[in-house]
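Hey, resending since the last one bounced:
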Amino acid sequence: MGLTVLELEVANPAEPQGTEKVEFLIDSGAAYSVVPTPILQRLAIKPLTEETFRLGDGSNVVRKKGAALFKRGERVGGADVIFGEDGDSNLLGALTLGALGLSLDPLRRELKPLPMILAGWSPDAARARRGSPDPAERPTVGLLRPVGTPSVAGTSQL
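The structure tokens again:
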């Protein structure tokens, strides 16, 4: 199996014009991206917290975590970033891939655009876009209503 690497620009969200190019090993099994601490320091990215990570051998390590901008061509996304230490690989994790609107095809080892879908569809928002009346004013036979929703004559609560 081949390794997939990708060069991205990394920036401080407060100063997105100043960037550093970093070559990453794409690791879609990792949540976070890892960037060497000296690069993050040059970009004036400050740690916000510390996280404990379990390594493949079962041991734990503590690393600082901050936030960075990642750029690839016209794609720009913000994501958490781990301050890498000596011996850490430059990893591009799933959260950064998602922030860039990309996913890794694990069979072809190629980056693909993610379909950009807004989650959290609600019937009320859909009705509002269509100009439908308030759900309390329409019969809802066979539909579930939230507890406490007024009943309309001729409807049933399942």
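The radius of gyration is 23 Å.

Sorry for the duplicate.
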